[in-house]
Design brief:
about 140 residues; mainly beta; Lipocalin; eight-stranded antiparallel β-barrel; two-stranded antiparallel sheet; 10 strands; about 15% helix
Length: about 140
């Protein structure tokens, strides 16, 4: 679940709402498998941008009331992980989006920047960067 949520967080962004985001957002909207712990993230249009929320993961099937207990900030530790928005405001399209920050509830960590790239094979590269040289990339597969 850690990798799943980190990947979701990496996708979050504050890039604003451009016309390109409105036009290209449909290409990645939908349900994506993160490839870790049965994790699934729903990417959806939020205004003119793209956002992502936690939909499913093995720990959530075991305990649907699972909370954000790894958050270093005490205030949000009581929020539920299911439905937690971890990606926000991604702008771009038709194959690339950028924004940030992103949040990984499993690790309780965030990243300053996020990048999404829709590959030719239909998979989505989700990249999060804490600094220009410290980045992590996951590849998600479309569920629907």
């Amino acid at each position: 679940m850690r990798a799943v949520l980190f990947a979701m967080a990496l996708v979050a962004a504050a890039g604003g709402g451009s016309a390109a985001a409105s036009q290209g957002s449909g290409a990645i909207a939908g349900l994506w498998s993160t490839g870790s712990n049965g994790g699934q993230v729903e990417l959806y249009r939020c205004g003119a941008a793209i956002c992502g929320k936690v939909v499913d993961a093995a720990p959530l099937r075991a305990n649907p009331d699972h909370r954000d207990v790894n958050n270093p900030d005490r205030m949000p530790r009581d929020r539920r992980l299911k439905g937690l928005v971890v990606l926000q405001g991604f702008a771009g399209g038709a194959r690339e989006w950028k924004g940030g920050p992103v949040y990984d509830p499993e690790a309780g960590e965030g990243a300053a920047k996020g990048f999404l790239t829709l590959r030719v094979d239909g998979k989505l590269e989700v990249k999060g960067c804490k600094a220009a040289i410290f980045c992590r990339t996951k590849v998600w597969t479309r569920v629907r």
